[in-house]
Write a structure and sequence with these properties.
single chain; alpha/beta; Rossmann fold; 7-stranded mixed beta sheet; 3-stranded mixed beta sheet; 24% strand
Length: 290
């Protein structure tokens, strides 16, 4: 039986998304991992990671199998949870711009309203430098954004951006409801606003972007520190993560691209499949560009 001095065991929901990348970075920080595909595998973990993917598809895939109920019970019970992109959506208490306007099945835990695909489709994927938890590079792929944070939610990073065309009606409807029927004025008619892209409330940490697709481990370290605090601080702290150099040059060609940049380039090239190891991504991108 594991003790508080053993490395933490992190359960990674392994239905879609960058599961391998999360596992790799967590294990590089000294954690053990368990890939979760059935409800019974939730028991016994010290923390949960919900990767990106397609939140509606994940909900459909798990319908009736008890995984969401097990995840919800764990999060409600105080187990630390970290959601990236679609994982953010699943950990939100409320979501708009859902498919066909139907209610989105959610795990919940973060008192917020999130907008699915706020920044647009895969071809609108981008990487940018943000500030909040220090300066860091953020990879956005079909990313959501938080429109409302409850009183207990700490906003950790924001972006100023307009909703994409597909999300605009849902955002307008949310604004109208929040303002008792009066739509929020838009700056210069462009619709730009500050939206939250990283937040924490108690045992729940979320990012709309994908730190696992960069070489920056600070967000995972933040999550693992939450896990250790929940366990009572018995485990060893992960090694200090170094921020990537801010003046690092952009890749000159595909061979020099990072995993995150490869996935963005694949999305922009219209390739729906952006999964796999770095070598596979390179080969797929070269083929798409040929």
């Amino acid at each position: 039986m594991a003790t508080s001095t053993d490395p933490p065991l992190i359960g990674v929901l392994a239905l879609q998304g960058s599961v391998a990348e999360h596992v790799e970075i967590l294990e590089s920080r000294g954690a053990r991992t368990r890939q979760i595909r059935v409800a019974s595998e939730v028991a016994g973990v010290d923390g949960l990671v919900l990767p990106g993917g397609e939140s509606t598809a994940i909900a459909i895939m798990t319908e009736g199998d008890g995984i969401f109920a097990a995840l919800r019970a764990a999060v409600d019970g105080g187990l630390p949870a970290y959601g990236t992109c679609a994982g953010l959506i699943l950990l939100a208490d409320d979501a708009v711009a859902t498919k066909k306007g139907a209610p989105q099945a959610l795990v919940g835990g973060l008192d917020c309203t999130v907008c699915r695909n706020y920044f647009g489709s895969q071809v609108s994927s981008f990487e940018t430098e943000l500030r909040g938890e220090g300066a860091f590079s953020a990879v956005f792929i079909r990313a959501p954004a938080i429109l409302r944070c409850g009183a207990g939610v700490e906003a950790l990073a924001t972006v100023s951006a307009a909703p994409c065309a597909a999300a605009r009606d849902a955002v307008d409807a949310f604004d109208a409801k929040a303002a008792s029927g009066a739509k929020r004025p838009r700056d210069g008619g462009a619709g730009s606003r500050d939206v939250v892209v990283a937040a924490r409330q108690g045992n729940v940490l979320v990012t709309a972007f994908h730190p696992e697709l960069t070489e920056d481990a600070r967000w995972h370290d933040k999550f693992l520190a939450m896990v250790e605090a929940h366990r009572g601080g018995g485990g060893a702290a992960p090694p200090a993560a170094k921020a990537p150099p801010s003046d690092a040059p952009s890749p000159a060609d595909v061979e020099a691209m990072t995993v995150g940049k490869l996935k963005i380039a694949l999305a922009r090239a219209g390739c729906e499949d952006a999964s796999g190891k770095k070598a596979d991504l390179k080969a797929r991108l070269l083929a798409a560009l040929a």
